[in-house]
Each structure stands twice: as structure tokens, then as C-alpha cells.
Amino acid sequence: MLLVQSTGSDEALRLNASNEKLSTDNKEIAGMDNKGNGSADTKNPVENGQLPDPAHWAVSDVVNYFKAAGFDEQACAFQDQEIDGKSLLLMTRNDVLTGLSIKLGPALKMYEYHVKPLQTQHLKKNTW
Questions:
Q1: In the prediction, which pLDDT does 51 show?
Q2: Closest C-alpha among 104, 95, 88 to residue 52
Q3: What dotted CATH number matches 54-126?
Q4: N- or C-end of the chain: fewer Cβ atoms within 10 A?
Q5: Region 103-118: what's the mean pLDDT?
Q6: Which DSSP state fits 100?
Q7: Cα gap 125→37, rounded to integer Å
Q8: What's the rounded Cα separation, in Å, for the pair 95 and 117?
Q9: d(Cα 12, Cα 117) in Å, to the nearest integer?
Q10: Could you say which DSSP state residue 20 is in?
Q11: How many CB atoms lie within 10 A of CB 14?
Q12: Biased-composition ranges for Polar residues (predicted)?
């Protein structure tokens, strides 16, 4: 079982692939505990303790990922712009901040705590 553990609004989500329960601050839940600031506790399928490679995500997968991360309002921008996993991996900081017409605060969090780590994860998995 995978738990995505929120470590606060200023840090990236961390994956916990163990079967141990988290503290009440980071509880196990069936869906999503949206904290309204871009951090969330949620369960997702994993490969080797990490999310599946975003290069294989459809547009709906990208939208669902950001909804699960607490960006319900902003996730529709990825749908409107038809951003699939491959497109997500090609996005620059500027693309997220200006190309999606999202408010600056959420856009910064989405890029720094989600897009950039997904890009890094993809590069690490595909350079070996």
C-alpha cells in the first residue's frame, strides 16, 4: 500500500511504501484529505515505491494527479490545454506560471512540488 505523506505546504509530497500507519497528522484515508494549500494525503498505485512514470499518463491521469494533490480548481487548466504525461514532462517553470493561466501561488507550488519532482523522477528512471 502506498501512502502519499504530506510534510507541510512548503515541502514536496513524500511517498511511504511501507505498511505502517502514519501519525494522526498524516492519517491513512481512502480518498484525499485536501488541505487547501496544495498538499494532500492520498493513496495511489506505485511502482517500486514511486508513482508510475508520468510519460505514460493520459490527460485524465494528469488532471487526477493534481486534483489528488489538492489543486481541484487548477487541474482543469491541464485538461483545457490537453497536457498529458509527456507534455507535463516537457513543461518549463515559465509554462506552468504563465501558459496555464493559473494564479501565481498555486502555479509555483504545482511546479516546484509536483512537476519538477516528476520530471526528476522520470529522468532518474530513464538514464540508467
A1: 78
A2: 88
A3: 1.10.150.50
A4: C
A5: 97
A6: T
A7: 29
A8: 16
A9: 8
A10: S
A11: 12
A12: 36-47
The candidate with the shortest Cα–Cα distance to 35, out of 55, 6, 64, 60, is 6
Instruction: List the chain domain ranges.
Output: 54-126
Return the number of other C-beta atoms located less than 10 Å from residue 35's C-beta: 13
- pLDDT reading at 19 higher than 80: no
The pLDDT, as a whole number, for residue 36 is 52
CB 55 within 8 A of CB 86: yes
Higher pLDDT, 57 or 40: 57
Q: What is the spatial distance between Cα 91 and Cα 71, in angstroms, rounded to a whole number?
A: 17
Whose cell is 509536483? That residue is: 114
Residue 81 CB burial class (10 angstroms; 0-12, 13-18, ≥19): middle
> Contact 100/92 with Cβ under 8 angstroms?
no
What stretches of 33-128 show up as alpha helix (H) in DSSP?
A: 59-68, 72-80, 85-90, 93-94, 104-110, 116-126
